[in-house]
């Protein structure tokens, strides 16, 4: 079987299993197996796969056909140009969260405190904290998570990304995990925001492979925002801001929630598909 035939056959199989972007997935898995950039496959369409390569590809395609996320199979996800190890212990980093990270480092660049500081609340793989650390070399970056497994993964990711080694990690339930009275210029979070009953309706890649604790936002999905609206003020510097990702359709509820806790909502930003997904607020 040639490279091109392998791509076509794999894409057909994945399409039948309802995998989105089946051809792209087939190409990425074959490129991963052959350890070459995807574009290089195009220069090798006529190359014959060895028997071992064919077996290897079959195994990867079978896993993807069972709806295991691509990033779990390849073991990594790209986030703001950083390579992030992805597995069952933390949410796979999403492209829309890159926008949250970008808004964060853009704001940090305008802050005058020394050092400039940021907290990633519920860091998961560590992706937001790592992007902030890499883009803002002078900033002090702190990250926390309730899951010990996620935190171990985040530390591994920080160690592997140059500039992110200095992130300070804390294990525990929200702000209680932090030592003493620390104040931040920025609190950034992509908390779990799926309503518990909706989890069953999600695509299998998410429902069966992302940790439930990274998804489940309680009965209406807003549990973490209620907590943050009440608790985060005490951890922000006077000119500090909170930046939060939320789910499609939650903008009004979250804006009201923060305003009723006396926050000043500065902006609600849209993702690349023009859906309101990020809240930016300050407390005075
Ligand atoms: N902060 C991590 C991310 O954005 C984890 C988020 C989560 O587990 N809900 O990917």
Structural overview:
The protein has 2 domains: 3-66, Helicase, Ruva Protein, domain 3, CATH 1.10.8; 87-283, Rossmann fold, CATH 3.40.50. The relative contact order is 0.10. The strands form 2 sheets. A 7-stranded mixed β-sheet has the order 5-4-3-6-7-9-8, with helices on both faces. Strands 1-2 form a two-stranded antiparallel sheet. 40% of the residues lie in helices and 19% in strands. The chain starts with a helix and ends with a strand. The protein is elongated and about 65 Å long. The chain is of the alpha/beta class and 284 residues long. The structure holds glutamine. Glutamine (GLN) binds next to helix 7.
| CATH superfamily membership of the largest domain | Vaccinia Virus protein VP39
Total strands: 9
Helicity level:
40-55%
**Helix count, DSSP H or I runs of 4 or more residues:** 12
CATH fold description of the largest domain: Rossmann fold
Provide the CATH top-level class of the largest domain.
Answer: Alpha Beta
Which compounds are bound in this model?
glutamine
Average pLDDT confidence is 97
Biggest β-sheet strands, sense, barrel: 7 strands, mixed
